[in-house]
Design brief:
Blueprint lengths: L2 E2 L4 H17 L1 H17 L1 E2 L11 E3 L4 E8 L2 H6 L7 E7 L6 E3 L4 E9 L11 H4 L2 E7 L4 E8 L6 E3 L6 E2 L4 E5 L3 E7 L3 E3 L6 E2 L5 E5 L4
Antiparallel strand pairs: 1-2, 3-16, 4-5, 4-15, 5-13, 6-12, 7-8, 7-11, 8-9, 9-13, 10-12, 14-16
């Protein structure tokens, strides 16, 4: 059984207490609350992952979910996310049944970390990237700089980052948690070949999104 994040406790404890109360008063309502408390533990599960070997030449998925966007960046995104003109944008949508612990896509130093408050539009909508609560992260190593945007969704409560700026993170290491429905945008520079495809299912810390181009 995978471990459960401690962030589940503020949600689990009151719901579980209510389930015990209602099981004595109105058993059907008690069962509903009991099922909800079980789902909270399920949502906050944090399974171990099999990190790919030779990850220094790879970009690994930062999130469990489904790829809903795969396209070249716009000129505006290029400036905002400090990436190259031919970079690719990949958006991974996480529904409430996905694992919501995010993992580092590369090994490197966190050079930028900024949280911005915002709205709660459905995370699969393109506008949510700009309008919703989000956290921007950049990780830099000798090969590249990767930009990510963690986006809170319609029922998301909060984005929690486990690391701080200037932290040296390892590919596949736990990086953040987005509570209850969300999305992660990752910007892949042109010196990598994107191997992922639209509608692919991803596993954080395991699925390979891109490989570094070989120098002739």
């Amino acid at each position: 059984m995978p471990k459960v994040r401690k962030e589940s406790l503020p949600f689990f404890i009151p719901v579980f207490i209510l389930s015990l109360i209602f099981l004595k008063l109105y058993i059907l309502i008690g069962i509903i609350f009991l099922a909800l408390s079980a789902f909270i533990l399920y949502f906050f599960r944090d399974p171990e992952k099999n990190i790919p070997q030779n990850s220094e030449n790879l970009i690994i998925a930062p999130a469990d979910g489904k790829i809903i966007t795969l396209r070249k960046v716009t000129s505006e995104e290029q400036k905002k996310f400090h990436t190259t003109a031919n970079a690719s944008k990949i958006s991974i949508f996480m529904n409430v049944f996905n694992v919501h612990v995010n993992r580092a896509p590369i090994t490197g130093k966190i050079t930028h970390l900024l949280h911005t408050k915002g709205k709660k539009l459905p995370a699969f909508r393109e506008k949510s990237s700009e309008l919703n609560e989000h956290t921007d992260i950049q990780i830099q190593n000798k090969n590249t700089t990767i930009s990510l945007r963690l986006i809170a969704g319609l029922v998301a409560q909060r984005i929690v980052t486990f690391k701080e700026k200037n932290y040296n993170i390892t590919a596949g290491e736990r990086m953040s948690l987005i509570k209850f429905g969300s999305r992660v945008d990752i910007f892949i520079p042109e010196n990598f070949n994107v191997t992922a495809k639209i509608n692919d299912k991803t596993s954080a810390g395991e699925t390979i999104l891109a490989r570094i181009k070989k120098i002739a």
